[in-house]
C-alpha cells in the first residue's frame, strides 16, 4: 500500500477537517486532533458525544484506534495527566495508555454544513435556513494606506507589491490611488528628505491603498519604510472582514400551522429525548425558529438574524433565561444538552464512511447523557 493511501489517524483527522473545518470553531473552543499521532495506523473509529470511562472501554473492546468525541476532553489548560485525577485528565491518561487517538470537532461541527445544528433544524422542517451568527473564516486581510509624493509612487508601489501586497484572488498589483496634497513642518530635531526643517511644506501626494494578507504585514511595512522618501512616513492599517457564509446556530421558517406542542412532539421523536421541556403554551402558533444545540440560552434573541424568531430550539435553558424568553413574548424547547447533539453522529458516520470507505466508523453504544427522566419516588 502506498504511503498516501495508508489508513492513519491523520487521514481521519483530514476528513474531519474537510467536513467541519477547525477555522469555524468559536475562539474559546479547543478542536482538532487532541491526543495521538497522525502517523498512527487506524482502521476502526468510534464516534461519541462524550468520552467517558465507559466509552473508552468500549473503544478498546471494539478494537478501535481512534475516537471522535464531539465534546473535547481537553478543554481548559491542565498541569498534569494523572490516572487518579477526578477531572477529565484521568480520561486523557487512559486514552494515552490505551494508544487511542482522540479528535474533537465541537463548535466547528456546530457551524459546518450538515453539522449538529443542521441536523436539529431538519427535525424542525426548517426552510430558508441561515446561521443566526456568522463566523469569520479565511486568512485575515488588512488594508494599508499611505501618502507618497507623485514622483516616488511607482518605486514605492513596486516594493510593496514585491513584499506581498496588492493581491486579490488571482489578480496581482492591485491598488487604489487618489491625488491630494500633504503638509508637514519639520522641527529642529528632524532631517527631512523632502523640503527643509523649520518651514511648512506643501507637497502633491498620492493616497495609495493596498490589500495585505496578515502573514505579509511585517514585510510590506518594512518595504514601505525602506522605500518611502519621507523620514517619518504616515500610513494606516485597517483590518478587513471577508463575506460571511457559515456560522453558529440556524434560523429558518417553520411549516404553516406549526404550534409549540407539535414542534415539541417532532423533536421528542427525532432526538428520542425523554427529558424534553417546553417554555410557553403548547397552543402557541409559530412561524420562525432559532436552532442552537447545547445551551443557547437567550442568545438568539440578541442576534439580528434571529431576533424575530418565535421559538428557540436548544439543548438546555437556565431558569432566568426561560423567564427572559417569556417576557419577550417568545417560546423555547429544551431537548436536553446531550440529546440535542447526539443525532449528528449517525449522518457524520455515514459521511466519513463515504470519504474513507476502508475505515470502519462505529457509533458508541455506551455514550449516554448524564440526566435520566424522573420516576415515581417512594419513601424509604
TL;DR?
This protein is α/β, with parallel strands linked by helices and 380 residues long. The protein has helices spanning 9-19, 53-61, 89-98, 107-111, 116-123, 153-162, 217-227, 260-271, 319-327, 337-341, 345-355; strands spanning 32-35, 44-48, 66-69, 101-104, 127-130, 133-134, 141-149, 176-185, 200-213, 235-240, 247-248, 250-253, 277-279, 288-292, 311-314, 331-334, 360-363.
Topology as H/E string? HEEHEHEHHEEEHEEHEEEHEEEHEHHE
Q: Describe the global form.
A: globular
* Helix-strand category: alpha/beta
Percent of residues in beta strands: 15-25%
Number of DSSP-assigned strands: 17
Q: Helix amount, in percent?
A: 25-40%
Distance between the termini: 65 Å
Total tally of structural domains:
3
Task: List key phrases describing it.
380 residues; alpha/beta; Udp-n-acetylmuramoylalanyl-d-glutamate--2,6- Diaminopimelate Ligase, Chain: A, domain 1; Alpha-Beta Plaits; 3 domains; six-stranded mixed sheet; five-stranded mixed sheet; 11 helices; 23% strand
Task: Set out the fold topology.
Layout: H1 9-19, E1 32-35, E2 44-48, H2 53-61, E3 66-69, H3 89-98, E4 101-104, H4 107-111, H5 116-123, E5 127-130, E6 133-134, E7 141-149, H6 153-162, E8 176-185, E9 200-213, H7 217-227, E10 235-240, E11 247-248, E12 250-253, H8 260-271, E13 277-279, E14 288-292, E15 311-314, H9 319-327, E16 331-334, H10 337-341, H11 345-355, E17 360-363
Parallel strand pairs: 2-3, 2-17, 3-4, 14-15, 15-16
Antiparallel strand pairs: 1-4, 5-12, 6-11, 7-9, 7-10, 8-9, 12-14, 13-16
Helix pairs in contact: 6-7
Amino acid at each position: 500500500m502506498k504511503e498516501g493511501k495508508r489508513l492513519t489517524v491523520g487521514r481521519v483527522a483530514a476528513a474531519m477537517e474537510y467536513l467541519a473545518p477547525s477555522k469555524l470553531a468559536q475562539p474559546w473552543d479547543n478542536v482538532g486532533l487532541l491526543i495521538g499521532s497522525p502517523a498512527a495506523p487506524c482502521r476502526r473509529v468510534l464516534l461519541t458525544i462524550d468520552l467517558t470511562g465507559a466509552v473508552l472501554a468500549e473503544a478498546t473492546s471494539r478494537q478501535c484506534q481512534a475516537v471522535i468525541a464531539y465534546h473535547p476532553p481537553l478543554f481548559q489548560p491542565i498541569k498534569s495527566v494523572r490516572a487518579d485525577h477526578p477531572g477529565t485528565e484521568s480520561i486523557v491518561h487512559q486514552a494515552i495508555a490505551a494508544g487511542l487517538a482522540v479528535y474533537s470537532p465541537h463548535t466547528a461541527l456546530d457551524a459546518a454544513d450538515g453539522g449538529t445544528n443542521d441536523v436539529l433544524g431538519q427535525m424542525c422542517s426548517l426552510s430558508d435556513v441561515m446561521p443566526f451568527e456568522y463566523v469569520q473564516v479565511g486568512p485575515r486581510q488588512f488594508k494599508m494606506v499611505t501618502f507618497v509624493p507623485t514622483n516616488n509612487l511607482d518605486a514605492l508601489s513596486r516594493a510593496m507589491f514585491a513584499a506581498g501586497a496588492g493581491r486579490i484572488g488571482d489578480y496581482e498589483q492591485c491598488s487604489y490611488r487618489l491625488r491630494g496634497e500633504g503638509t508637514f513642518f519639520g522641527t529642529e530635531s528632524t532631517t527631512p528628505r523632502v523640503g527643509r526643517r523649520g518651514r511648512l511644506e506643501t507637497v502633491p501626494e498620492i493616497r495609495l491603498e493596498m490589500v495585505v494578507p496578515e502573514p505579509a504585514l511585517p514585510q510590506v511595512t518594512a518595504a514601505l519604510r525602506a522605500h518611502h522618501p519621507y523620514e517619518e512616513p504616515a500610513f494606516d492599517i485597517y483590518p478587513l472582514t471577508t463575506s460571511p457564509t457559515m456560522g453558529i446556530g440556524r434560523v429558518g421558517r417553520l411549516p404553516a400551522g406549526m404550534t409549540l406542542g407539535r414542534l415539541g412532539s417532532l423533536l421528542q421523536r427525532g432526538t428520542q429525548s425523554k427529558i424534553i421541556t417546553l417554555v410557553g403554551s403548547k397552543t402557541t402558533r409559530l412561524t420562525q425558529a432559532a436552532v442552537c444545540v447545547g445551551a443557547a440560552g437567550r442568545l438568539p434573541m440578541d442576534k439580528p438574524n434571529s431576533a424575530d424568531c418565535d421559538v428557540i430550539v436548544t439543548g438546555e435553558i437556565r431558569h432566568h433565561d426561560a423567564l427572559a424568553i417569556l417576557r419577550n413574548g417568545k417560546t423555547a424547547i429544551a431537548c436536553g444538552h446531550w440529546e440535542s447533539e447526539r443525532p449528528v453522529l449517525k449522518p457524520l458516520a455515514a459521511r466519513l464512511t463515504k470519504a474513507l470507505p476502508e475505515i470502519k466508523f462505529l457509533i458508541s453504544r455506551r455514550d449516554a447523557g448524564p440526566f435520566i427522566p424522573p420516576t415515581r419516588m417512594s419513601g424509604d
